[in-house]
């Protein structure tokens, strides 16, 4: 069984400016750097060492990962871990984001008409990329740094909980287990606020 720590990158300039940030990129802020170092401290205090590490190909994710890993530890960049492409909405103010339909948990295929990706496309490439990496890597503890939107739609696709939890803050972590093609969720970690939300069996969906 593998333990997957799937983490969001630290705060960026576009996060600070409240701009839509998907396929486009912006650098980590000073706060973003401190958030990554807080995540590093979280892992160190619990003596969690990583047998393998991956990041999306975007700078904000790889820079976050490099702040966390011990000096000299290598990692792999995966395009499949990239953020949702929001098409013509990229770099625009966040208030231009569409309102979600009643009962909807994501934007669905809204951005496709504007040259972006659908939620299903993002979730499926995330799952495929992560699964392929986990199946082909040695070791038990794996760290991956990705993005809020992409992590959220993957979480929805896996459908592990009866009720969804809030979207993760910068450097928030979903801790999953992976065994024989099956994901399970263990806990949700906010190393900045020093909060851990442990998932009970009662909260999980019943599996066939």
Automatic annotation (TrEMBL):
Q: Gene3D superfamilies recorded for this chain?
A: Phosphoglycerate mutase-like
Residues that hold substrate according to the record: 8-15, 60
The record ties this protein, via SUPFAM superfamilies, to: Phosphoglycerate mutase-like
Q: Which GO terms describe its molecular function?
A: phosphatase activity
For this protein, the record's Pfam families field holds: His_Phos_1
**Which InterPro entries does this chain map to?**
His_Pase_superF_clade-1, His_PPase_superfam, PG/BPGM_mutase_AS, PGM_Phosphatase
Superkingdom of source = Bacteria
Q: Which GO terms describe its cellular component?
A: cytoplasm
What is the name of this protein? Histidine phosphatase family protein
State the taxonomy lineage: Bacteria, Bacillati, Bacillota, Bacilli, Lactobacillales
């Amino acid at each position: 069984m593998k333990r997957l720590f799937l983490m969001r990158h630290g705060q960026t300039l576009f996060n600070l400016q409240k701009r839509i940030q998907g396929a486009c990129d912006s650098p980590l802020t000073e706060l973003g750097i401190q958030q990554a170092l807080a995540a590093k401290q979280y892992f160190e205090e619990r003596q969690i060492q990583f047998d393998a590490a991956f990041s999306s190909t975007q700078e904000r994710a790889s820079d976050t990962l490099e702040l966390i890993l011990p000096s000299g530890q290598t990692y792999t960049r995966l395009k499949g871990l990239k953020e949702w492409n929001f098409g013509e909405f990229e770099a625009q103010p966040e208030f231009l984001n569409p309102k979600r339909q009643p009962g909807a948990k994501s934007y669905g295929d809204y951005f496709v008409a504007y040259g972006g990706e659908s939620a299903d496309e993002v979730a499926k490439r995330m799952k495929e990329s992560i699964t392929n990496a986990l199946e082909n890597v040695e070791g038990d503890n794996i760290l991956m740094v990705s993005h809020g939107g992409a992590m959220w739609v993957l979480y929805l696709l896996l459908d592990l909980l009866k009720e969804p939890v809030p979207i993760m803050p910068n450097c928030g972590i979903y801790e999953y287990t992976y065994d024989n093609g099956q994901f399970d969720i263990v806990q949700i970690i906010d190393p900045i606020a020093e909060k851990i939300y442990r998932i009970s069996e009662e909260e999980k969906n019943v599996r066939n």
